[in-house]
């Protein structure tokens, strides 16, 4: 059976260079590839274009790359919760391409499925549609959106096996599945790495065909971005 495992995060990120376009899974701070981001910081790669739903917070997630000025462009749907992101965007240091959240997900999924583009009604009549082809279908206007083109896709899963099959836990099953296979190389970090064939096929969310490298991560913080609790009586 094909084995996709690599020894560690250093081996998993071989080939990452300055100027690349990277996809990073997660939503807020949920299900983000923590080990991968830490290694990108250590490597010091710069001039990166990062595709992610959001940009983490100031001292965690993609915020760590922003602090080191390693990101040239962010393609995101939500960019709150990060003061450094706001500062760089307003000062012109960081290029930002805001994308409707559903469109962002579909641009990933289209790349995963091999579709070059698709039509969506989201964004028609707004700045999102500027410079893009539009077309009418059944009396409704649509915008042509192109699939993403990325060098690496980095995702984080709960469990995986040596063949690259992945299972996500809870809401960590957000942008991670649709980013698998949506880049030239997909790297998955997992909390638990099992022998090939250990996972029940009925439980697998992403088959190993979409993953090129997999490794077991460590020391996950799993921070909570906004803790909301009921007041005590």
UniProtKB/TrEMBL annotation:
> What are the recorded GO MF terms, alphabetically?
CoA-transferase activity
Sorted keywords for this record are: Transferase
Q: Name one Pfam family in it.
A: CoA_trans
Residues spanning the membrane: none
- Matches recorded under PROSITE patterns: COA_TRANSF_1
Q: What InterPro entries does this protein map onto?
A: 3-oxoacid_CoA-transf_A, CoA_trans_fam_I, CoA_transf_BS, NagB/RpiA_transferase-like
Q: Which family does it belong to?
A: Belongs to the 3-oxoacid CoA-transferase subunit A family.
Q: What is this protein called?
A: 3-oxoacid CoA-transferase subunit A
């Amino acid at each position: 059976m094909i084995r996709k495992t690599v020894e560690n995060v250093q081996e998993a990120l071989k080939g990452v260079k300055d100027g690349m376009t990277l996809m990073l899974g997660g939503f807020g701070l949920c299900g983000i590839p923590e080990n991968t981001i830490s290694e990108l910081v250590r490597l010091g790669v710069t001039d990166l274009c990062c595709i992610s739903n959001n940009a983490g917070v100031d001292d965690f997630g993609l915020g760590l790359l922003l602090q080191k000025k390693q990101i040239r462009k962010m393609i995101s749907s939500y960019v709150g919760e990060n003061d450094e992101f706001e500062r760089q965007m307003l000062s012109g240091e960081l290029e930002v391409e805001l994308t409707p959240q559903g469109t962002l997900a579909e641009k990933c999924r289209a790349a995963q499925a091999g579709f070059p583009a698709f039509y969506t009604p989201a964004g028609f009549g707004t700045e999102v549609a500027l410079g893009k082809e539009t077309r009418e279908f059944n009396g409704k206007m649509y915008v042509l959106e192109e699939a993403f083109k990325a060098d690496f896709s980095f995702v984080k899963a709960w469990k995986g096996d040596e063949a690259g099959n992945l299972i996500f836990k809870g809401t960590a099953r957000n942008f991670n599945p649709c980013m698998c296979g949506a880049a030239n190389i997909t790297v998955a970090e997992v909390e638990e790495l099992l022998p090939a064939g250990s996972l029940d096929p009925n439980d697998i969310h992403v088959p190993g065909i979409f993953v090129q490298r997999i490794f077991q991560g460590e020391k996950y913080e799993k921070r909570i971005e906004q803790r909301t609790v009921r007041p005590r009586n």
